Amino acid sequence: MEIDFDRLIRRILQDQTTDWHGIHGLTHWGRVYANGMKVAEQSGANVKVVELFAFFHDSQRWNDGFDLGHGQRGAEYAATLRGEYFDVTDEEFELLYIACRDHTNGCTEADVTIQTCWDADRLDLGRVYITPIAKKMCTTAAKDPATIAWATKRAEREIVPSIVSEIWHEQRG
After folding, report:
1. pTM of the predicted model as reported, rounded to 2 decimal places
2. Domain ranges for the chain
3. Which of 51, 78, 121, 173 is 20 to 30 A from residue 88's alpha carbon, by CA?
């Protein structure tokens, strides 16, 4: 089954409890998606897992501040939509689950797909005026100063990536 991201994102937004305009909301997810695609080109990560991570990793936050357990909740939420909104193998789902569950722990050691997910999220720190630090990245691609500069510029400018732009503009009126 090919993933209908528009349908999936709309469903996630229906079930989200926080303001999707916030720093962990829709535009963040879109930039994590774009960052992940850029890093995956070089890392060889499983693209389907990286794509799904972008939309689930912060989807079950209770607030934009400290929210211990939101990654675990996002992983568990992904399990409820598996089969109806997306299909993955058990191995792919395990990678997605671990990537979501552990994305805020500051880890760098993991499967390359999980590393790519974590880097995709960390590369969007510019949205809160933090420049990502290369040594805290996992993959060679994400450690590249050009990649960090590209992602930081997009985050600081609050770029709305095309994967979410229709929904973003629709909801903003």
Report:
1. 0.96
2. 5-164
3. 121
